[in-house]
Amino acid sequence: MTALSPHLRQATPVVAARGEGVHLFDQDGRRYLDFTAGIGVTSTGHCHPKVVAAAQEQVGTLIHGQYTTVMHQPLRRLVDKLGEVLPAGLDSLFFTNSGSEAVESALRLARQATGRPNVLVCHGGFHGRTVAAASMTTSGTRFRSGFSPLMSGVVVTPFPTAYRYGWDEETATRFALKELDYTLQTISSPADTAAIIVEPVLGEGGYVPANRGFMEGLRERADRHGFLLILDEVQTGVGRTGRFWGHDHFGVTPDILVTAKGLASGFPLSGIAASEELMTKAWPGSQGGTYGANAVACAAACATLDVVRDEKLVENADAMGKRLRHGLEAVADRTPGIGDVRGLGLMLATEFVTEDGSPDPETAARVQRAAVDEGLLLLLCGAWNQVVRMIPALVIDETAVDEGLQAWATAV
Ligand code: PLP
């Protein structure tokens, strides 16, 4: 008898038989409101008809046309479409299959382009599970322990996590930037620093948004010292936060942008964007992969970007995010043990704490289980798994938000 590895045990007992919009259905036809969206992947909802049609058509035309060998139409179209939404200057694209691979591509490019060894990472950041990406991940020892030695050259610097320290946002930001300056003076000199990588909202680390002052501070230091700013928008990109990119909240443009998850509505596709001048500094042969920019994934991504634009999903994420947040705050106000509600757009979270304010993963897990009984699927995050997060598809409407809130209130 074969079985899945214990590491792949599901967070819920649900066996998904099919998906439609914001719902999943199990083998017995029971309907679940899916506030996980495949960990923020099925941005246009499960099986959006336009994404399905684009993928089906592509499967019958060309499944794989290896992109270092031949160009194909879906890739050409995707490059043009991304050109409409990427910040000015990030006009050169490279594609991979997962967030971790794209993060590693960004790291390789930064090291090769600058000739410097170190990468600064923000404490609490998550960048993936491949060895280099895990080395840059500091959102929980569970992602790092047991397979050392990790990659060298990673230096950790604070992220403004105001709630954790009971600080206001300004104090947390001042602390984080001063520590960064200290780090550049004491551990990783600018001459040794290739880049700093950061998420606009800490994802696995507990759904903590950055802020304008912090991001401007990073941009200023990167420019002053000649290292690169890499924004990991794997989870925050393609409308998730109520802006097309997470960094649109802060008015700060990266040197390298990393995207994945919501880009192709569930097909494996990720990539990085940078200026052509920067991208050409990658050494020949150092970037690439057999399956990158798979034709079906690219066709699905083109359809996804059309749906996001035509159905105004970025605006919807903003509006529905506000509605959901309002409801979560109302529940928090009347519930002892909820310490914080935070996030941006449709990337929202509730942190559970004990009476003395310590992280309370047991309650978070109990609420997650109780929610399944209410027909609501949720995920945990945070260093202790003490945070329950909500990342529904961007197509969610008011009725589904309110249904989710009803189920949440009962579960809590
Ligand atoms: N970066 C961020 C911000 C993520 O949230 C994730 C996954 O959750 C990754 C990178 C890694 O992506 P993947 O699991 O596709 O390798």
From TrEMBL:
Q: Which GO terms describe its molecular function?
A: transaminase activity
Q: Which InterPro entries match?
A: Aminotrans_3, Aminotrans_3_PPA_site, Class-III_PLP-dep_AT, PyrdxlP-dep_Trfase, PyrdxlP-dep_Trfase_major, PyrdxlP-dep_Trfase_small
- Keywords in alphabetical order: Aminotransferase, Pyridoxal phosphate, Transferase
SUPFAM superfamilies referenced in this protein's UniProt entry, alphabetically: PLP-dependent transferases
Q: Which CDD domains match?
A: OAT_like
The reply on keyword Transferase is yes
Where does the UniProt annotation place the signal sequence?
A: none
In the record, the note on similarity to other proteins reads:
Belongs to the class-III pyridoxal-phosphate-dependent aminotransferase family.
Q: What is this protein called?
A: Aspartate aminotransferase family protein
Species the sequence originates in: Streptomyces cellulosae
